[in-house]
Amino acid sequence: MRIDGILARWNDQRGFGFIAPTNGGPDVFVHISAFPLDGSRPVQGERLSFEIITGEDGTKRAHALQRPDRPPRSHPHPASPRHPEKRSRGFFSQLILLIVFGLLAYAAYTYYTRHATAGHSLVSPAEDNAAPVRPVSTPRIDAPATPAYKCDGRIHCTQMTSCAEATWFLRNCPGVKMDGNNDGVPCERQWCG
């Protein structure tokens, strides 16, 4: 049987108080656990509806409290989160996951662009309205080419055997005397004229 009453005394630090029944009679003990889990603390003087049960020690206490002056809440928990650190941890783990995904996507893109088939265009011929792209063969270079000539002390045109040899000596060897007019063309009378 439900009884109406008013919360006459409340000790918020200890979590209990006493309800004075509206129809009279002795005050009834109430513990915080009897209140609905609606996120609001008990307030002295508020109206309550309750049932009475007898504890193991024979004392009567309030049970299954209702607050008739307060509309029932759609959410049993308070609006603010009880554990904001859990929410922030979830945000940071999602952020880290997003960063890792971005790095993997960047690595895949870099790998693809570096290892794309040599000579193939990434744009199809239909897209650029041009003839099909043919693979370009690159010459194979096994070792650096060694020069056919070397600076061996020859400095005059009479010591050369060709225009190419005289040009190489003029560009690469110090102290040569093969360009009298300083126009960059050696041995113009003998070989390069």
UniProtKB/TrEMBL annotation:
InterPro entries in the record: CSD, CSD_CS, CSP_DNA-bd, Excalibur_Ca-bd_domain, NA-bd_OB-fold
Task: Give any Pfam family that matches.
Answer: CSD
Q: Name one GO cellular component term.
A: cytosol
Q: What organism is this sequence from?
A: Zoogloea dura
**Could you tell me which CDD domains the record lists for this protein?**
CSP_CDS
Q: Which domain of life is it from?
A: Bacteria
Q: Does the keyword Membrane apply?
A: yes
What is the protein name stated in its UniProt record? Cold shock domain-containing protein
